[in-house]
Amino acid sequence: MIAILGAGKMGEALLSGMLRAGVAPSGVIAAARRTERGAALAESYGIDAMNAPAAAALASTLVITVKPQDMAVLLDEIAPQVKADQLVISVAAGITTRYIEARLPVDVAVVRVMSNTPVLVDEAMSVISAGRFAGEEHLRRTEELLRPVGKVLRIPESQQDAATALSGSGPAYVYFLVESMVDAGILLGMPRATALEMVKQAVYGAATMLRESGEHPVILREAVTSPGGTTINAIRELERHGVRAAFLAAIEAARDRGRELGAG
Fold it and tell me: Whole-angstrom Cα distance, residue 6 to residue 95?
């Protein structure tokens, strides 16, 4: 039995992905803070919904998807129900496995996960790290849970805050880029819908080439950048305006904010 504790957007995305992957609705429980939210999930997905302590008492795997600032309250609620043979999977940004372990009464296996919103289309990037009491079996179980909704990668927990900034927030950077490119198309006289369609396909095509070709992004970019051509002039302007440095600073700032959230 799997319990989703904190059925917000990410929790629902994981829930729907598991069901699409073949997990039976009878094998999943959702626990939402608001009763009406739990009822809505139960109606939509045919699962059971109940409060967090009751769900924690029934499930063998607890998937915690609450916001970082709500983690302490949730752990206090479920602590009396947690058993040493359970697996706790946390998808809360900045919250370390040691933080969770310290607030539970038994030496339970904890796996920390950072995923992202493309979980909604089964294209998530999920990175996982084991806590002190989690072994190979627990990592494999976590991978089996997440693989149907995207790619899964194991990393040391010391890299989790960086992963949050780079991959967890990553889709927002891409959307920001798309928005900027569409605005440029409008500036050049294109209708918004036309510009958006062109940019969407350019981003999708570039991402597909990057994934399937195995080439380094520098090689792929150079293939588009002819001597004295249009692309090199565009790249020059991006460098002149410090776009690369801005991305470095932005992702570093996201990393720092993740650490702040984890520290309370």
Answer: 15
**pTM of structure:** 0.88
Asked if residue 131 lies in contact with residue 98, where contact means CB atoms within 8 angstroms, the answer is yes
Q: Are 129 and 154 in contact (CB under 8 A)?
A: yes
In a structure prediction context, what are the per-residue pLDDT tens digits for the chain, which is 264 residues long?
999 998 788 888 888 888 887 889 999 999 988 888 888 988 899 999 999 999 999 999 999 999 888 999 999 999 999 999 999 999 988 899 999 999 999 999 999 999 998 988 889 999 999 999 999 999 999 999 999 889 999 999 999 999 999 999 999 999 999 999 999 999 999 999 999 999 999 999 999 999 999 999 999 999 999 999 999 999 999 999 999 999 999 999 999 998 888 776
Q: Which fold has domain 170-262?
A: ProC C-terminal domain-like fold (1.10.3730)
Q: 2-161 falls under which CATH superfamily?
A: NAD(P)-binding Rossmann-like Domain (3.40.50.720)
DSSP letter assigned to residue 80: G
Amino acid identity, position 54: A
Among residues 124, 123, 132, which one has the least CA distance to residue 157? 132
